[in-house]
Amino acid sequence: MSFQFVVFCLYAASAFTGATLSSFTSADPVAVQAVCLTIPTLFIGVILFSMRRAHLLVRIAGKATSIAMGFLNFAFLAALACWPTAWAAQALGSTLDRGSIAAILLLTSGLAALYGLINAGWLRVTRYTVCLQHLPAWWQGREVALVSDLHVGVIRGTNFVRRIVDRLNALKPTVVFISGDLFDGAKVDVVDSVEPWRSLRASAGAYFVTGNHDEFGDRTRYLRALTGVGVQVLDNEKRVVEGLQVVGIHDAETHRPALFETLLERARIDRSLPSILLAHRPENLEAAERAGVSLQLSGHTHAGQFPLWTVIVRTIYGRFAYGLHRHGSLQVVTSSGAGTGGPPFRVGTRSEIVLLRLESM
């Protein structure tokens, strides 16, 4: 999903919201439309500015505009509902006027947004059992963790990373896989942001590949910092850990089909041993299956985060937008992510760490 497409959607939805509220209430149309269009303008402006400068005021502005944008998104859903509700009320001969309809729906959407804001900060653990052929005895019954989409930047910082690492240490997985978007693209103190990973306790270590947000600018600064705190960067390569093949391909390469296939070929995946592929997006699954990958671990989708975006994400990725699914011989786990992208809201989805119990098939 391109940045330009997202921006177009934000402005179109905001303009529609302003026009609807003006039509259903006695509010000044110019003032309402100005507010509805100013919010996405400030939101986008702060995002772009945050990529160049790190400052306390930028963080404050980022949080404020992101929350405002989230509430505006839910107001858009209310605006969508206003029209069919008004038509139904008219057809049924209801005395409910248009202003009351707008007020009720806006109040409902506001409460839903408030719930989404709280829900986004509630980190859960999602558990699956994954059966793999030829699983070495050493891995039998062990648990591995998948973490994705922390989006460290304007909204979340080092304390959030520390919270994730503490939760992982409490879960005691054998290994931790980080499938991208550890950072959000905003300018931050990278060294300080990754420091909590130094205290991670996982006997087989932690492995990382980039997501699309980690690719904004030069990704090597993230890779160097993570390597410095003990996280192993899979730089388009394969490692063998106690008989389990772990392959990692960065996001800039995974969504280029020809290059992705070439890198998989270079990895020389042994089909007599199980393999796990870290790839940020649940895409090009046919290539991963042909290469002999047993299990792909992805993120990126956020499971849509909240209504409407959920529909868009599922239209793009189908059933692979979230959860554990099979594509032929390939199993795919897509996490909804530990953090959030854009407005920090979740309705109908949840922030999560995924814990996988490995069993032999």
Task: Based on Cα principal axes, name the global outline.
Answer: elongated
Quantity of strands, as a count: 12
Number of helices: 11
Q: Order of SSEs, N→C? A: HHHHEEHEHEHEEEHHEHEHEEE
For the largest beta-sheet, the strand count, sense and barrel status come to: 6 strands, mixed
Indicate how many domains the architecture comprises.
Answer: 2
What do we call the CATH homologous superfamily of the largest domain? Metallo-dependent phosphatases
CATH topology of the largest domain: Purple Acid Phosphatase, chain A, domain 2
What structural category characterises the helix and strand content?
alpha/beta
Low-confidence stretches: none
- Average pLDDT: 95
CATH architecture designation of the largest domain: 4-Layer Sandwich
- Percent range for helical residues? 40-55%
Give the structure's gist in a few sentences.
The chain is of the alpha/beta class and 361 residues long.
Topology record:
Elements: H1 3-24, H2 29-50, H3 56-91, H4 98-120, E1 123-132, E2 143-147, H5 158-171, E3 175-178, H6 190-194, E4 206-208, H7 220-228, E5 232-233, E6 237-241, E7 244-248, H8 251-254, H9 257-267, E8 275-278, H10 285-290, E9 295-298, H11 309-317, E10 323-327, E11 330-334, E12 351-360
Parallel strand pairs: 1-12, 2-3, 3-4, 4-5, 7-8, 8-9, 9-11
Antiparallel strand pairs: 2-12, 6-7, 10-11
